[in-house]
Every structure is written in C-alpha cells, then in structure tokens.
C-alpha cells in the first residue's frame, strides 16, 4: 500500500487527484489497561501498520467516504445531516471526526476521502483510532487549523465517545497521534503529560511478539461501558474524583467499604497504575527482562479481577510462558483481540510455534503474528 497506490485508488473513485495523503498507526499497549478512563497511566507504542487516508475538500456540504477494505460505492452523507448514531460501521469514524471538529467551532466542510489500511480489524490494535487520527490530521492540515497532536487526539476521542457512541478513554487516539519511532509513550491521562521512553528491545536482544488471537473484539457491545460505569460508581462511593486518586496504601480499607461487585474492578485499576509506574522505571533503566513478570501480573489481574480476558488469550499467555517467554498478557480492551509476549529474540520463533501448537490442540484458529516495533505516530505522507 504505497502513497501512489492510494492516490490512484482515490482518482479511480472520485475522478480527481487527492490534495494529500495522511497516515496514522495502530497501537499495542505495553501495560496500563482500563486505567485511561480512571485518570490513570498507560504505556502504549505505535505499530508499523498504518491507516492511510487520501483526501480532497469539497465545497457543497457533501461527505463521500470509501475504503479499500469495504466493497461497494462510497458512503455519501450531507454535513447538515450528521448526528450521533446516524452513521453506522466504519464511516462513523471519519464522519465523527469531521463532526467533532465542527462542534468545536472549526470551519471544516465536505470532502472526498479514501481509506486504505493494514491495521488488523477487530484485533484490539486500535484500527478505529488510526482512522480517526489520520482523518483529524488531514483536516487540520487542509484547513490550516493549527491544532497540536494532543488536541487532535482528544477531538478523535470525542468523535468516538459522542458520534460513534463508545465511551473509550483517550489512550488509543493519543498513542496513534503522538507516539514516536523507537519509543513507548507514557501517558498520564489525568493531566495529559506525555513522556517518550526509549524502547530498544532489539538492541537488548529481545522481541515483542504481538499475536492476534483472531477472536474479534467489539467495544460497542456494552460490556466496556458497564466496566467504566462500575469504576465511576466506585470512585463516587469513595468520595474520589477518579480511581487514580486511590493510593495503593489505602486500597484495603477502600475495598472493605465497597460493594463486593466493585472490589475487583478497583483492585485492578489501583494495582495496574502501580505496574505502569514500575514498568516506566524499568524502561528508563533499560531493564527489559524485568518487565516480564509485570506483564504477566497485569494479565492475571485483567483475567481474574477485571474479567476481560478470553480463553484464547489465557491459552496464549500460558503457552508462551511455558515455552520460556519473560512475560505475556492480553492487550487492549479485552473480550477478544491480541496478546503481547516479551521474549528473547532467539526464542521468539519457538515461543510462537508453541502458542500455535497449543491453539491447534484446543481447536482454535491459529493466531496471526503482527509486526511490533515502536513506530511513528500520525503524519502527512505527501
Ligand atoms: C480500549 C479503549 F479504547 C481504550 O480507551 C482503553 O480503555 C483500552 O480499551 C483498555 O485499556 O482500547
């Protein structure tokens, strides 16, 4: 999928040249899951897979959206008809970004947009955030809005919250918009401070294996919203603005004061924030192997407390650990998607083979290996 390829595809669809091509990556979250809507810490990195958009402005208030991944004619919408929940499927993401910019007072109009992406869909690797961020950057550049990467990411999150209707946190959009090549991005979702942490696994003889377990995940089905609501209820019962404000030393009495069904959620969020802090320290010192047990502890917490793991993820984690991985965990929102495995580079093929063999024995579709080196965030390609 070259820049030239998407330009040609745009021309074939719309009979004109695009004004430019923009790209934004998928992400994998190293650690810090379900903390971003609790004011907490996350530590994602951008993947080399990217979503590209070729765009040309229109002056007639019409929005035409097409995708190389979706057969059929472009989706055609009128700007004055854009309403939350009115656009279904993939087109809701770019339409939602346009609407979020307009709602924020930015003078953006209609456009023709063609998408092409190699970010795996439904794999928990933020294909939707990649599409949102590529669109947001395109509109920012074409209309000279002058917004920074963080502002664009927050507008993309707003599109997903308000237009698509998924109450996600800001991690995925911030990762797709702000990550830098060779780095993981430590995000404090409370004050939006970002710290680029060098991540040279190859230099340390290590490898991050990302395995798409081919179990589709969907954040829009209500389970994610219910978890977020549970966390917010717990914080309110504790008299805190957010669960980020619960210090680990105060965890035990806080749990005792909460209804039983909220306790595991709170325990996960508080311990996960602490794991992100520890992971960031390990990255600062290049102590990569020591990350392994933290990742595995994070998985246990997501499986046993937050209950968002799924059978293929649990099997992949246990098979990878048995085959000698330093650590492994599910990544992303859960209920399907991908697993990451930290492994010595030389052992990566054997670990991947061991996971595949375990899947075959269990009768699961074989996992797909996704390339995972820390890559660049959203950018203009030309
Ligand atoms: C999904 C959401 F979109 C993120 O905001 C985050 O909550 C994540 O699940 C869980 O950490 O990717």
TrEMBL record:
Residues 95-178 form the GHMP kinase N-terminal domain. One of its GO terms (biological process) is galactose metabolic process. One of its GO terms (molecular function) is galactokinase activity. GO terms for cellular component: cytosol. The keyword Cell wall biogenesis/degradation does not apply. Residues 281-359 form the GHMP kinase C-terminal domain. Pfam families: GalKase_gal_bdg, GHMP_kinases_C, GHMP_kinases_N. The keyword Cytoplasm applies. Keywords: ATP-binding, Carbohydrate metabolism, Cytoplasm, Galactose metabolism, Kinase, Magnesium, Metal-binding, Nucleotide-binding, Transferase. It comes from the Bacteria. Its EC number is 2.7.1.6. Belongs to the GHMP kinase family. GalK subfamily. NCBIfam families: gal_kin. This is Galactokinase.
């Amino acid at each position: 999928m070259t820049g030239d390829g998407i330009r040609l595809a745009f021309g074939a669809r719309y009979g004109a040249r695009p004004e430019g091509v923009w790209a934004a990556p998928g992400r994998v979250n190293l650690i810090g899951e379900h903390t971003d809507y609790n004011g907490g810490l996350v530590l994602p990195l951008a993947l080399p897979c990217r979503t590209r958009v070729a765009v040309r402005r229109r002056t007639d208030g019409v929005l035409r959206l097409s995708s190389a991944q979706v057969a059929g004619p472009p989706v055609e919408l009128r700007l004055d008809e854009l309403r939350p929940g009115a656009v279904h499927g993939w087109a809701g993401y770019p339409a939602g970004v346009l609407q979020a910019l307009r709602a924020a007072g930015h003078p953006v109009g209609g456009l023709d947009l063609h998408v092409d992406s190699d970010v795996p869909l439904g794999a928990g690797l933020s294909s939707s955030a990649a599409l949102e961020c590529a669109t947001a950057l395109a509109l920012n550049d074409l209309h000279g809005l002058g917004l920074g990467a963080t502002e664009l990411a927050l507008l993309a999150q707003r599109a997903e919250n308000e237009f698509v209707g998924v109450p996600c946190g800001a991690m995925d959009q911030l990762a797709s918009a702000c990550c830098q090549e060779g780095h993981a991005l430590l995000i404090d979702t409370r004050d939006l401070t970002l710290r680029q942490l060098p991540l040279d696994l190859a230099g340390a003889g290590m490898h991050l294996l990302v395995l798409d377990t081919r179990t589709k995940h969907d954040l829009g089905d209500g389970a994610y919203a219910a978890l977020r609501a549970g966390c917010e209820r717990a914080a309110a019962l504790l008299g805190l603005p957010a669960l980020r404000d619960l210090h680990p030393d105060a965890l035990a009495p806080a749990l005792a004061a909460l209804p039983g069904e909220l306790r595991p959620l709170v325990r996960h969020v508080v311990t996960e924030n602490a794991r992100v802090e520890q992971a960031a320290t390990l990255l600062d010192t290049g102590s990569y192997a020591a990350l392994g047990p933290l990742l595995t502890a994070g998985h246990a917490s997501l499986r046993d407390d937050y209950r968002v793991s799924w059978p293929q993820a649990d099997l992949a984690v246990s098979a990878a650990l048995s085959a000698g991985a330093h650590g492994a965990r599910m990544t992303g929102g859960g209920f399907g998607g991908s697993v990451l495995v930290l492994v010595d580079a030389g052992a990566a093929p054997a670990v991947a083979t061991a996971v595949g063999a375990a899947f075959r024995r269990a009768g699961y579709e074989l996992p797909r290996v996704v390339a995972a080196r820390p890559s660049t965030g959203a950018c203009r390609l030309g």
